[in-house]
Automatic annotation (TrEMBL):
Organism, scientific name: Sporosarcina gallistercoris
Protein known as: inositol-phosphate phosphatase
Keywords of this entry: Hydrolase, Magnesium, Metal-binding
PROSITE patterns in the record: IMP_1, IMP_2
Catalytic activity: a myo-inositol phosphate + H2O = myo-inositol + phosphate
EC number(s) recorded for this UniProt protein: 3.1.3.25
Amino acid sequence: MNWGALDRYAKSLIKEAAQHIKHSFFTEIEISAKSSANDLVTNIDHEIEQFFIKRIRRDFPEHRIMGEEGFGDDIQSLDGFIWFLDPIDGTMNFVHQKRNFAISLGIYIDGIGMLGYVYDVMADDLYSAMKDEGAFLNDIRLPSLEDTTIEQAIIGVNASWVAPNRYVETAPMIDLVTKCRGTRSYGSAALELTHVAAGRVDAYMSMRLSPWDVAGGIIIANEVGAISSTLTGVRPGLLQQETFVVANKSIHTQLLEEFIVLKK
Ligand code: IPD
Ligand code: CA
Ligand code: CA
Ligand code: CA
């Protein structure tokens, strides 16, 4: 495989898709609810996913695609080439804010992340990475992350972590948000991964994410030395929804051992 050519191909596809998204602001967007009233999807999510799938199937017929909106393949194993696609990550932001959403794409071979992309469409910020070749923001290399401490860290958590929930004990989380320098929540898992990769936030965690939310961002974060895992500390499996944490490597273990205490 010519990875440089595949990288250029993926980037041009993403930029073309982004143009469609921007043009959609001049049309009437159809919004509907999926699993619950707050789980939004639009005709643009569907159209963008179909755009990618049509192109990828035409140009790489032997590759498989896992997309959020279900137009891709039914993926039960990580064998071969798989493209993990979230056509719009942060649909709620797309609908309500018309910003702070991203296209997320990860290209894997036999479960190994090779090429990762997160495109912040409205900011025109393209984060990309190639395995062992580094991570980039608009083709400028992102430096490796420097060590930090919980006391100096900005932690990407939303309010559900300190409210009664099914997954974690709230007392250690309250301890974490009290001890750390500050907290942030942006509403797009893919963008939050890039904030960790760029060193703007030192960790991000979620109680439930899907493979397409994280597949691209994990590769980018990995290239600057951040660690991604489930809340039990194992590598994300990329075949189903899972808990997720990505963090500067100097605080990842401490987060899991001291602050993220899973309910029995
Ligand atoms: C969602 C966003 C959000 C996260 C949700 C995801 P979507 O993706 O990444 O930040 O908290 O769990 O489902 O549905 O907007 O693509
Ligand atoms: Ca969604
Ligand atoms: Ca998503
Ligand atoms: Ca989505």
